[in-house]
Amino acid sequence: MKFGLLCFGFVAVLSAQKFDAALAEKPEMCRAFAEVDARANLIQKEWIELTEIPSPSKQETLRIEYMKKAMARVGLTGIEQDAIGNAWGLLKGTGGGPELVFAAHTDTVFAMDTKIKVREENGRYYAPGIGDDTGALVALLHSIDILRQQGLKTKGDVVFLATVQEEIGLLGAKYWLDHRAKKPDLFVAVDSRLGSIGYGALLIEQFKFTFEGPTLHTLASKGQPNAARGAARLILAINNMEMPAPPEGGSPFLPVANVGTLGGGTVANATPGKVFLTVDIRSQEMKAQSKLVEDVKTLAQRAANEEKLSLSVEAVNVAHDYSKALPKEVRLKHPLVQTTVAVTDYLKLNGNAKTMPIDSGSDDHNIGVAMAIPSIGIGAILGAGAHSLEESADKASILRGTKYLMLLTVALAGLGQ
Ligand SMILES: [Zn+2]
Question: 136 C-alpha to center of ligand 1: Å?
Fold first, then answer.
């Protein structure tokens, strides 16, 4: 194999996957990389502009409108919007390649009236939502624009999907995939850290338990049922419960059950009629997740019985059904994962360390995993403090992210003629 101009200065070790370093050394790809640097200011300016458009979940209209215009600007065709609010556009392939979907979400966790003004300090941008997930939207726009500009075509069609309601249970991605007659061949959510690859799905469910008992004056409360004691019993029981072991190679932080919110009672000198608490349950396997959910529900019922209270249980976060997900080995060995690892390592996005894909994820690609569609979660920027008002991101990381997305697009969908 002959390598011409080495725009990254070294040759990657090739393995059983679809990426060939020669692709990255093509003159038009080298020109595309150079173009990212040439328009660095433009990319960063658009990153700031989009970040400053407020976009809480279920109120993404302003950003979605922006994205639809931007998709047209970069040459995507067939731009559509569905009933839930997702917008998408198509980069038509020359034929014979897999259909590749890139998804990034437009919603943030910040209320409409949150002050969002991007501040720059020591090479970082600071603003709520700068990283999650605005950087990915902008990197995707420019990667598509530059590929087109440099005449780099793909064999497979590439769909750029800007989703809504990701932060409240991946609802936009679920709606889109549920309503699509033909499922995509490859689904990539761009929403985590540049260099990371998740090929699984973190199972997340949240339940609200409400204990209900009599409201009695303190002087009449001795020995009587008390809803607060029911909640206390459950909290202690969750704290003492035996957790299933993490799967081999799994995260030591999982499985986990956490009491996140609690409340109840209205007067200080009476028993609270109602006390509620919510439990967030997370694991990496359907079996462990189902067992944990059942165990917590059993403990709640026991606490209610012991305290002679009534109990109601409400699922507050959509629980996606992962029972149809492909086995771990099949997902890991899929060319989607292995090609992405090869591209990530070629660009040294993790320095000299070999990229280790992880069997987890909590982005839009979880829906693809649940539907047995080859799906991964990757990132386009280096951010910190997501979901906090102090969120920040490395200003230069989006340039590496844009190059990465360009190379990945052509590696996954195939180079068209
Ligand atoms: Zn996100």
Answer: 9
Q: How far does the centroid of ligand 1 lie from the alpha carbon of residue 269, in Å? A: 44
From 315, 341, 368, the end of a domain falls on 315
Q: Which residues of the chain have pLDDT under 50?
A: 1-5, 9-15
pLDDT for 318: 67
DSSP bridge partners of 259: 279
The string of pLDDT tens digits covering residues 4-16 is: 445 554 444 334 6
In a domain, 12, yes or no: no
Domain boundary among 254, 281, 315: 315
Distance 171 CA to ligand 1 centre (A): 13
Same domain, 269 and 285: yes
Residues 221 and 288 in one domain: yes
CA 229–ligand 1 middle distance (angstroms): 37
Among candidate residues 204, 193, 189, the one with its CA nearest the CA of residue 364: 189
Q: What secondary structure letter does DSSP report for 276?
A: E
- Write down the pTM of the prediction: 0.84
HSE-up (13 A, CA, CB side) for residue 256: 11
337 in a domain, yes or no?
yes
